[in-house]
Write a structure and sequence with these properties.
The chain is of the alpha/beta class. The chain has 6 helices and 8 strands; from the N terminus they run E-H-H-E-H-E-E-H-E-H-E-H-E-E. The protein folds into 2 domains: 71 residues, Translation Initiation Factor IF3; 79 residues, TusA-like domain (Translation Initiation Factor IF3), CATH 3.30.110. The relative contact order is 0.14.
Length: 175
């Protein structure tokens, strides 16, 4: 990575305000001149964002040497992104309640409604790694987590959701 002509974007204040910095980051990348590098300063490594950027033809490098921040350097590569071949299968139409019944007694419950962004997604992904075969994760969330869903798909998880009311959405996630 060249790391030339670096523009810096500190997204920690954006996250502290409760706003998702995705639009700000993508706007900064759109405005980034050829041959320049965007340095994103964050409190964590934004893995779902980096996976998305890689698919769109960006290269990145993360520096964790600063204990108070994670510095991620992003550059547009000259190589055109290659569309990944994906096997698609039509999902079986099973209701949320049927999944609840199927995994009764085999669900690990997790409430992330009280967590500040990005901790709901981080906590869910970490919890999925600890599930045993045949278990599902039952998540209480404020809303349907749009940035989590592609990450679940990339990791071959199946999910079902049910919106109970405003600020209360249930998810069942399993393999």
């Amino acid at each position: 990575m060249k790391k030339e002509n670096i523009s810096t974007l500190d997204v920690r204040p954006i996250l502290a305000s409760g706003t998702d910095p995705f639009v700000t980051i993508m706007s900064a990348l759109d405005k980034l001149p050829s041959g320049h590098t965007l340095e994103i300063i964050n409190s964590f490594e934004p893995i779902p964002l980096l996976n998305k950027l890689k698919k769109e033809g960006y290269d990145f490098e993360t520096d964790r040497s600063d204990i108070s921040a994670v510095h991620t350097f992003v550059e547009k590569t000259d190589v055109q992104p290659v569309e990944e071949a994906k096997l698609t299968s039509k999902p079986i139409s099973i209701s949320f309640e049927e999944y609840e019944s199927k995994f009764k007694g085999c669900m690990v419950e997790l409430d992330v409604r009280h967590l500040e962004m990005p901790m709901p997604m981080v906590t869910i992904l970490e919890s999925l790694e600890t599930l045993k075969k045949g278990e599902a994760l039952y998540v209480h969330h404020q809303r349907l987590p749009q940035y989590l869903l592609p990450e679940l798909e990339d990791r071959n998880y199946i999910w079902a959701s049910k919106i109970v009311d405003e600020g209360n959405t249930k998810l069942i996630i399993f393999k």
